Structures are given as C-alpha cells and as structure tokens.
Amino acid sequence: MRKIVLSAAIAAAAALSFAAPSQAGYYSYDYQPTCFIKKIKTYDYYGNLVIKKIKVCK
Q1: What is the DSSP string of the chain?
Q2: Cα 46-51-54 angle, rounded to 5 deg
C-alpha cells in the first residue's frame, strides 16, 4: 500500500513539473488575449426570449 501511494505521488509530481513550463510559455512576451462579451439570443421551450452573455477570448 505504501509503495502505491509513493509511486502515485512521484507520478503526480512528474506530471505537474511538465505542465507548468508549457503553460508559462503561452503568456510570455507580454501577450494578453483580447476578450469581449458576446450576447446570444435564443428562445426557451415556452417561447420566452433568453439572452446569454458569453466571454470570448482570442
């Protein structure tokens, strides 16, 4: 049981160590995504107008 917990902890640490540098490169060089709010108009089952606001980033 102890070996399983130890191997799971080592595997999780290895996975996180590879994930952190890959995420860091995405926002490098002062890159900031441009975001805007998009409104989507739909109708529900009873015919009432429903407006959803969705944040879209590029």
Answers
A1: -HHHHHHHHHHHHHHHHHHHHHHHGGG-TT----EEEEEEEEE-TTS-EEEEEEEEE-
A2: 135
Residue-range domain boundaries for the chain? 2-57
Q: Cβ distance 33 to 58 under 8 Å?
A: yes
Higher pLDDT, 31 or 14: 31
Calculate mean pLDDT across residues 10-36: 66
**Residue bearing tokens 């926002």:** 27
The model's pTM is: 0.38
Closest-CA residue to 36 (of 22, 48, 54): 54
Residue reference for tokens 């590879």: 18
Residue 47: the pLDDT is 94
